[in-house]
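Human: My hope is that you can spare some time for a protein that puzzles me. I am handing you a single protein, as its sequence and its fold in C-alpha cell form. Could you go through the record with me and say what the backbone is doing? Take your time, and here it is.
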Amino acid sequence: MSEKTAITPATHTAPPATFSHGVRKGNILQVAGQVGFLPAAEGRAPTPAGPTLREQTLQTLANVEAVLTEGGASWDDVMMMRVYLTDTGHFAEMNEIYNEFFAGLTVAPAARTTVYVGLPAGLLIEIDALAVLD
C-alpha cells in the first residue's frame, strides 16, 4: 500500500491548523478546500485576491490548480469538485465564471455547489477537488 504524501505548493502558506492543502495516496489526490488568497508573500498575511466574486473565484481555481500540479495532476484528472458560496445570489455569476474557465475540458468533473457561512470575513467562495491519476 502506498504512503500518503502532503502537498503544499510554494504559492501557499503553511496551513493554520493540522491539515494539508492536498494529500496524495497512490493515484488519488484530494485537494483541500481552497479560497481566493493571493500567492503567499513573506511578511504578508493571507490576502484575498479582491472583493469581487470573479477575482476570488479565478484565484481560488488557480490555487486548486497549484495543488493539482504539485501533486502530479491536472484538471483532466479531476473527478469531483465541491464549490461553497457564502451568498445564494452568487450562483449565476459563479456558474458563468466556471463555464468560461472549464470550456476547454472534454469531460467536465462532477460538481456540487452549496451555500454556507463558514468562511473568514471577506471570502466569498471555497473549492475542493478530488483527482484520480492514470
Notes: The first strand starts at residue 4 and ends at 7. The chain is about 20% helix and 30% strand.
